[in-house]
Amino acid sequence: MGRILNSDAEPADARWLREMLIAAYSTPGAGAAFGRQIPRPGCQAVYAHDYERCFGRERQAKKWDHFFSMASSAVSREAWEQNPFREDLHYSEDDEWSRRLIDKGFAIAYAEKSVAIHSHNYTLDQAFRRSYGEAFALAAIEGKEPAHYTFPRTVLAGAVREGLMDFRYCLRTHRFAQWPHALGVRIAQRLGKVRGYRDGWSRYRTAAS
Q1: Residue 115 phi/psi, 5° resolution?
Q2: 180-189 pLDDT tens trace
Q3: According to a count of CB atoms within 10 Å of the terminal CB, is the N or C end of the chain lower?
């Protein structure tokens, strides 16, 4: 198993590597394993909430269609050599790659006890651009028509839904003053998703046809 840790991430304790490998080797057919990530002190509420949703003890990611993060992970040589990254993707390479592994019969292990510290406080513009890039790549991964991602459904309804979840999180963690900022981030992310998916569809789907 090759170990991967982003240059802007750091192990939370001395057990990071050991627990990662235990999860990988104890999962039959594992092509990769990924660890839990926790935000840095000072992480803004909206992004701290995302880490809770993805990696918390009652993480919502378990109910999602798919979730994987290579920022703190281990990858088997066999899986890597048989399934290289798509070089035409500039965002979400790890998401597309791990979906492909599963399609080919590999398992993905979650190493909950392997913990890394990793987070970013993006500006609204950075949040938009990151969401744009991820949605641009998503158009190459999933087959939904651009009409699926509309302003009413994706931006308005999506921002309201996530804004309410952020509202409850900010109340629970005594960070209510940060909720307006969180709502602004959600709107920026959703606007980026609509535009990015549309442009990605033109790049990967329309051009190919």
Answers
A1: -120, 130
A2: 999 999 999 9
A3: C
